[in-house]
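Q: Given only this backbone (114 positions), what sequence would you predict?
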């Protein structure tokens, strides 16, 4: 797929900020490894302060990513329907269906009456 430089920057930003968020979460979890199970709830405050900002940054980039993929989808759908509305497409499609049906019928006939 061909992406514009702006789209490539958005993809790179989404990847970078998502990995930052994941690495921060792993760091927080590693830091809480020695906590007693009854004290692990305290990690939420660390998560809230340290992991929420990179998560929010990743969400911004994913929002932009969704915008341009949605636009690409709309363009692709419009192009598909423009092509399938043509008479030549309909005729070719009909011919393939007919060939498939007649080939299947001929094959069945030859198999049954050998």
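A: Predicted residues:
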């Amino acid at each position: 797929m061909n992406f514009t430089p702006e789209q490539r920057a958005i993809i790179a930003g989404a990847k970078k900020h998502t990995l930052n968020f994941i690495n921060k979460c792993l760091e927080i979890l590693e830091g809480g490894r020695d906590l007693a199970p009854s004290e692990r709830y305290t990690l939420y405050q660390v998560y809230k302060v340290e992991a929420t900002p990179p998560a929010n940054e990743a969400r911004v980039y994913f929002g932009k990513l969704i915008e341009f993929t949605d636009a690409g989808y709309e363009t692709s759908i419009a192009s598909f329907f423009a092509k399938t509305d043509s008479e030549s497409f309909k005729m070719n499609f009909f011919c393939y269906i007919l060939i498939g049906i007649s080939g299947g019928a001929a094959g069945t006939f030859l198999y049954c009456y050998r």
